[in-house]
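Give me structure tokens for this 204-residue protein.
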Amino acid sequence: MLSKFFDGVDKMVVAKLVLFHTLVIAISNYLVSINFDLLGHPLTAAAFTFPLVIVATDLTVRLIGKTAGRAVVALSYIPAVAVSVAVILWSGAPESVAYRIGFASGSAYLVGTMLDVYVFQWVRERFTAWFYAPALSMIAANFIDTYTFFYVGFANGADEFMAANWDTVALNQSITKLVIGWIVFLPAYGVLLSMIQKKVIVIK
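Here you go.
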């Protein structure tokens, strides 16, 4: 059903993008179980990896366009949830926790990345410099994605600490992810984009 959105797009590129999205989400969902304080602020280790989802989304739109980019997000949704649940179960969490976090992750991914596709394209159509679109879209997608995930995954949940502090952790996580995204992943995105542009035709 989604194949019509990929007319003229290299199917191997699509497969690699879906795999990239799925792997980043799976790794981040494992790391969200690792809690620690950074300068007195509660965080999870996923703050250092989840900005890659936004980078992956922006790169997807840059490479194959907005329409095909939304289709990649849709294709990634089910495997992302399934792999997330499997990873969380593997880490020793109860089934109820694993399914809830898996659903939360999928919901956050779908809402955040769909928004990111629109914001990224809107900014890209108005500013020529490559870094404007990922830098600005990172703000909106990051906050909505993070708050959606922590609310759906932990509000009134079995984890007493996260149930009581999900909003504080979400705020700290959002700010940390944004700073890391701008300082680390945005420059890396520029290098990766330059390398890829030399090998494939970028759809404008």
